[in-house]
Amino acid sequence: MADNSGRTDLAVGDIxxxxxxxxEYTAGGSxxxxxxxxxxxxxxxxxxxxxxxxxxxxxxxxxxxxxVLPVLVKGVVKVTAGGAITVGNVVTGGTAGKVLxxxxxxxxxxxxxxxGQALNAASADGDLILVRVNK
Length: 135
What we know:
Blueprint: E1 21-27, E2 36-41, E3 44-47, E4 55-59, E5 68-80, E6 90-93, E7 99-101, E8 114-118, E9 128-134
Parallel strand pairs: 1-3
Antiparallel strand pairs: 1-5, 2-3, 2-4, 4-5, 5-9, 6-7, 6-8, 8-9
């Protein structure tokens, strides 16, 4: 795992700049700070598990099922990559709440899966990068 974020002072799930927008949802399962979360019901989120999940943002703290969870919906945050990512790639959530590159042809119904844009490159699963979330 390489920290490619340029911000070794930040932990995964820490906000990197001011001006963020945060929403509160109910955790629908165990969620770890820094995971991409996706909607699983009305105002309920779980850790993203597939690139087609309808992402809500990035968890700003860890939570158990039923707890209130602050979620970054707009701003820059440190996250874990699920594979190789190039600076500027549009990213979404994937396995274990990691970020993945959006690929292939998207249907209009998949627009909600987009999380934001990579601000750093990742060369492998587990690399740490900054992402500009724009939900």
